[in-house]
């Protein structure tokens, strides 16, 4: 009979199908129950009356009456949309009916065959049978919890009848099923009444397995469970027993079988003492059982509610209450102690197997037992944490050390994958050289062996005998699924009543085949075994609990090294899907990314705190802090009175390293310890896969460090626009170097590319904005130099000093907000060039050019206003009388010189910065100018002035304006003699009002303008030199105010040399031809006369 019924095949297929239907029902329940996911047609106001009517009349709904038509008008209007939207739900409910029919048929067949069930003998057959009962029950319970099922089915049938003129053929059965399962447990117990004997027999076979597994941690500890070191002499012996599969069978699965099984077949609880004891032990295990995903069953409440309505169950209700009280008092503590024991046991197991991976062969069973035990405890904690009962000791349901248990589970999984070859070699030899021989002997000793069973067992022996180690060495793929399915078939054939070969009479055959099955799984199904014993996709459906557990673990310093186990557990989520419910929404990468970002944030915070401490120490060694030390040394040398004893002496750098007691940990010790712990967690794996995404944990750390380091560098700049404060470039550079040096020490802890990180951050700082759109030091220093230093230089509050190659603040009555020389000398500008690089200086140059073009625009306007006068002065520069009259008509001469001076100051600052860039890096040749190399014609200035041109102005007009601008400047030069600040300062090498910058402004501006106009620069500058010389010589002929004007004009004459020296287009011979050298010599003598030092 069993051969034709195909019990094994049906059990396998129905279990798989039932699991998909269960997940589908759970998805529908979640979708309809969540306001965000709820189908729109259920929330539509227009549908409210129709839904109420359907729920009230279900399943006998009249679709044709007058009163009905008023209620169902909304469905009539949208019948096609309603039909399409409800079809998938309707078909899913039909799947439940189909599944139920097949389950009924199979259970009745099994009863008719009077099958024998014993978990220790026909393990797979018994497990599949119990799983099918539990899956079916879970489907019905979940279905009963869908509040909108009647509305969904009723709306579909209504739309179907309105569209097709008749109801769907399956509707009456579906409606009847919904009514029957309004009280699901009552109906289910009625259904399973006839199956009580078979179910009870299967459950009672657990009495040798479940109590042995359900022990407190003290007994585990005294038995040295999972320890490889407890019996050193037997360390190489193969770990095996008569009930291999039972050893790693999930406790949660067994408890689900016991609780739900005895609820369905409760009559045995009053008639069988063994049943009652097993049931009570299951009731004491916890308060909640998982049906599927996060759908749970409150076992005590459901049991009590069911037995309340049945006569003669008062004692059982009392047992339920007593068991519930026991769980509330002792359950949390018992499971807490188990987790505590498993943390130590798994740690020891990992250490031993890491050191001796060859033990994975004989001791593979230990690994799967450890994983299964740990998984059971984690699942128990998760479902009870989410639905935590009101307790006096809620701490028992909080585990801030769960990270360690998860970590060692992942380590064991990793070891099994890494040394899969070792496991395969061992078990291939075991199968061929032991299992095949024992199985053959067992078969030979049988006194009866029917043909079908004989064929199967002979195939087992031949398959196993043909194995060899060479297959492993050649990396051949093994597939024993057919053998294992044949063993399940054989269990079914030999477990029916009056079987020719009853399996219960041949326990040795069951033992050797169960052992062989385990060994075959070690060869070809290690991944399946890891999934069966350690899959943690439950966290996918308890995201709040999972995040809470991560937070609790991350607050413990000792747990930080294990935190990577949390994101790694997210890799299990992809295993939770089912083909029957592909649209089921999961959290995907969100949780994984959240955990990795949190770990990266903690690590980067510690790293950067260490860097900040080191930066403070390096800061103490900067030259600016040595004044106090020099002063103290001077006191001692001059024997002056030292400061009073009450004053605290400042510690010298390095004092923090002196230790009196090494056990006393300072802040740096704690930070380094924290960093070691956090970096250890990155060693768990280099990368892993979550939903087809390859996740690299160290990249999250690099990303966090990049963001935080950019923020820190900008903060270190200390730019305050209001007070005009900013850190000196050299100090900032020293700070960044301290950070970078310490960041490189991170590679001693963890394999990260610090060089790439630093280059990325510093390169971003050379741009106006970083990758997140934030300001960079390039922008801050550009703003500061423009708004603070150069603005004050334009107002002569700061002087350009060619001699000292810097800008200096003028002495004024008010205290300046900063000293210009501290920010603009060669060392500071070199530091600036190193900080912001060629790209940053290019941005600075562009901003400088914008200010220059603004001044040139105003100069052109002034030239246009005075064009007639300037044209006449250009033509009559050799006629002094006419020039005097024309000068009186010329307006704005001082303004022209002021604007040209501003241009000169800007160009002088730019030249200083460009020169420093050349000193810093000569290897950058994007453009000669960008690399800091001097050019006769400034390309940036040419580009800036070219951008000013408009289509309205002709080239000839532009050329005319340019020539007249030089005329304007030349004839205005004598006006500078009236300014007292035009006095030449020999020490600075320039004038106090920065007019010495005119030389650079005239040369570079003229060269740029005439380059754009494609004119001869040398010829135009010769004309300017001739006109300027003439006006200055005429100034010398004015005798009325000779004491003032002549002296100041000589200072200016000196700068005529500056104009010639600055220009690559003019020469001393040209100057000599239009300006007597004797006047230049006298000017030099007058200027330096007050500085002559006589040497005796």
UniProtKB/TrEMBL annotation:
BP-aspect Gene Ontology terms: cell migration; cell projection assembly; cortical actin cytoskeleton organization; neuron projection morphogenesis
Ranges of biased composition (kind: Basic and acidic residues): 644-657
Species in which this protein is naturally found: Astatotilapia calliptera
Protein name, UniProt field: NCK associated protein 1 like
Region annotated Disordered, chain positions: 637-657
Cleavable signal peptide: none
Gene: NCKAP1L
GO CC annotation: SCAR complex
